Amino acid sequence: MDRRLNGPTVLSAATRLSPPQPNYHSRAVREALEHLASIDLFELCNEAEVEHCRATRDLRSCGRYVHNTLISCGHASLCEECSQRCDLCPICRIPLPKNGNRLRLRLYYECIQAGLISKRADERFQEMEDGDKQLTADVQRLYSLFDVALENNLVSLICHYITDVCMDESAVSSDPVIAFLLDEVVVKDWCKRTFRNITTELQEIYNIEVEGMRSRLSLLLKFSVQLAAICNVLEVLESSFKGTLSAQLHDLHRLQENILKTKQHMEIMMWCIRHQFLENVRSRHTDFMSWCSLVRERKSAAIKRSWPDAVNYSAEPSGQDGSLFIEDALLNLDTEQGNTEETAEELEAASLLKSGVLSILQCKIGGVAGCYPFENLRTAVDILFLCGSSDLVVAKQAILLYYLFDRHWEMPDETWRHFVEDFAATFSITRHSLLESLVFYLLDDHTDEALQEACRLIPEISGPTTHPKIAQVFLERNNPDAALMVLRWSGCDGGFQMKPVSLSEAVTAVRVRVECGLLTEAFTHQRMLCTKVKEKKLKHVPSGNASDDFEGEFRNWEKWVEILVTEICCLCIRRNLVDRMIELPWNSDEEKHIHKCLLDFTYEDPSITTGNLLVVYYLQRYRYTEAYLVDLKLKTLEQEFVSKNSVGEEVLSRMRSAIDWRGRLIVSCINFRRNYLD
Q1: Span of the secretion signal (predicted)?
Q2: What are the backbone dihedrals phi and psi of residue 335, each rounded to the nearest 5 degrees, phi first?
């Protein structure tokens, strides 16, 4: 049997069959809802099925619609007129009572009589007489009962219908209509149909003026509750497909994702409507184009101040490429041009996008990923809450706060602080998260005033969950002391209970310590990190010969050593700390990178004295042969440099002095060692 229902399931505003608001104080409404809440769920299918009178009239079947069931047996087999002249039920042949009431109104018609279901809807369903249309009428009547349950906070009835009826293997019927109504796919289709109807209503509301939206806030609140209820139904429905990889399960997950995004978007829209989309709150930016220009300046400043990597380790991007916090956040939301264009037309939630937002999504401003700055608050809400995953709602709220801070910071507090605090209170955002979004904005802002304010606020948000990029940005903005404090407060100070870090975070931690002059601490920190990485790889050492996978893991540990040691060496060369660096107790794994780094700098410019300290390094460790070989290598480089370049007398004199000094130092150390042994 084809489980797809014929005909459109979404009605236009002109033809939508919504009943007027029922009178909940009336007895008819109360009795109908009590009947719905207490009905046997298997009987719900029978109540929804279209029945025709089976009595014989003038040698042919009566065929009228049956609005009642017989009290004696519960069958919906006779119309009201025929029940008065018949003595037996046409189905089970049970006698009808001689006196008293013979009929009870069926639940569906009881809801119509109470005003819970539109009479126009029933008239429309009665037009469906033949074939699949008859089946459609039965399904639509069941949907109407589900709608009543949804409207009156009885969604648990639908959930129990899934678990107690649809998933009950003993719940079977020889009637093909009833058998179809017992299928959980019918419930999923009801969820789809209800969601589409709600989105159609939302499209109309979102396209009117702000004042019109404000008058419909109560309706939006009702839709929010209903979407939450539909999500509960889908969670129960998911259990019937659990453990399978069917297309039904994929379709279910996608529907649930769309509903969650629509609900999250609606809740933010309700807040925006209450505050009139901040139309009456002046932005600190003159116009949108000046704001775009300012963002480009921030991006340019971030690129200029970013530090190059001493070693190219593209296998794990360090994030030190001049990206802004807002840029990284939008990338994480997956709102880039290609992905959004592909999925926007497929998602039901995308129909709520304001006209023009899709074209905005397809452009980037000056290299900043995503669409920042947003043209206005409505655009921000649409892009964030309709185009990103619903699981990232907290991140979306943080980005929206970033946008608000960027829009109003430096303006008098009394003009804008109150609605930011209201946003935090409405969505249960903690003060820590609020200040964190502000600090992210301040660190992206390239002005000194913003940096000073970030330094003032950073003690309030630093902790184990502090974003690792904060320390990096402080370092890039020539404030290593603040970066060091962030590392210590976040648990990256090298203690025994230090939290796990990535390679890029380890590089930042080493850089900060060297820039603060804590060379010994930088050495100890890198040694501890590399040891932990090595222990993690070695604790699963296979017996016998190492496998290829293990060798790859071991090389990964060697990469950590190479990168961190090279970073320390390069920074020490830049800060003229090589004499202190060579006194540290480097092991053989680290030493080879010290050797290579110092020689590489000498290759670039043999006139500098960096290579001389490599000779000193080996002499301090009584390794005279290696010191002698390095000296020979340096002499060769220096001779080639002099022969190929025009060298001034001052530089030439300095190089000759260095050569003589190295030679005398090596001879002196060898003689001292020889005399000591004698």
Answers
A1: none
A2: -105, 25
Between helices 393-408 and 247-274, what is the axis angle to 10°? 30
* Helical residues (DSSP H) of 306-336, grouped into ranges: 325-332
Q: Whole-prediction pTM value?
A: 0.82
List, run by run, the mean pLDDT of 10-residue segments along the chain (678 residues).
39 44 87 91 84 79 87 88 88 86 89 87 59 68 91 91 78 61 81 92 92 93 95 87 70 89 95 93 92 93 84 47 86 55 49 62 45 89 86 93 94 89 95 95 94 94 89 93 90 59 87 93 91 68 42 66 92 90 92 91 82 88 87 86 81 83 82 66
Give Cα 250 distance to the centre of its chain: 19
Taking the CA atoms of 275, 281, 287 and 292 in sequence, report the sign of the dihedral they define.
negative
Q: Are strands 68-70 and 103-105 parallel, antiparallel or unpaired?
A: antiparallel
**Per-position b or e across 304-338, b if 16+ CB within 10 A of its CB:** eebbebbeebeeeebbbebbbbbbebbeebebbee
- Residue with token string 């014929």: 6
Nearest one of 224, 213, 218 to 279, comparing CA atoms: 213
Residue 515 token pair: 């820039």
Contacts of 474 (CB under 8 A, 6+ apart): 443, 455, 480, 482, 483, 486
Answer yes or no: are the C-beta atoms of 261 and 390 closer than 8 Å: yes
Tell me the two tokens of residue 125: 């369903």
- The reported pLDDT for the residue numbered 624 is 85
Give whole-number Cα distances, 96 to 75, 84, 86, 93, in Å.
11, 9, 8, 9
For the residues of 399-439, what is the DSSP string, one character each? HHHHHHHHHHTTS-GGGTHHHHHHHHHHTT--HHHHHHHHH
Report the 10 Å Cβ neighbour count for 457: 15
Residue 69, H or E segment = strand 68-70
Sign of CA dihedral 426, 427, 431, 434: negative
* Nearest-angstrom CA–CA distance, 507 and 568: 9
Treating both helix axes as pointing N-terminal to C-terminal, what angle do 27-38 and 107-114 enclose, rounded to 10 degrees?
A: 150
Report the distance separating Cα 570 and Cα 310, nearest Å: 7
Angle subtended at Cα 48 by Cα 47 and Cα 49, rounded to the nearest 5 degrees: 95
**The pLDDT value given to residue 270:** 96
Tokens of 180: 């179809």
Q: What is the dihedral of CA 544, 547, 550, 551, to 10 degrees?
A: 100
Partners of 95 in the β-ladder: 88
Give me the count of residues in the chain.
678
User: Other CB atoms closer than 10 Å to residue 286's CB: what's the count?
Assistant: 9
Q: How far apart are the first and last CA of the chain?
A: 104
Distance set, CA 449 to CA 74, 232, 384, 409, 471 (Å): 79, 48, 29, 11, 18
What is the 8-class DSSP label of residue 52?
Answer: B
* Phi, psi of 70, rounded to the nearest 5 degrees: -80, 130
| Predicted local distance difference test score (pLDDT) of residue 121 | 65
What local confidence, expressed as pLDDT, does residue 518 receive? 92
Q: How many CA atoms lie within 13 A of 250 on its CB side?
A: 3
Q: Which residues contact 654 (CB under 8 A, 6 or more apart)?
A: 607
Kindly tell me the sign of the dihedral angle through the C-alpha atoms of 82, 86, 89, 91: negative
| Per-residue tokens: 643 | 């022969």
Going from the C-alpha of 91 to that of each of 69, 81, 94, 237, 492, the distances in angstroms are: 12, 17, 8, 35, 79
Q: For every residue of 571-605, which 3-state class applies, written as one string?
A: HHHHCCCHHHHCCCCCCHHHHHHHHHHHHHHHHHC
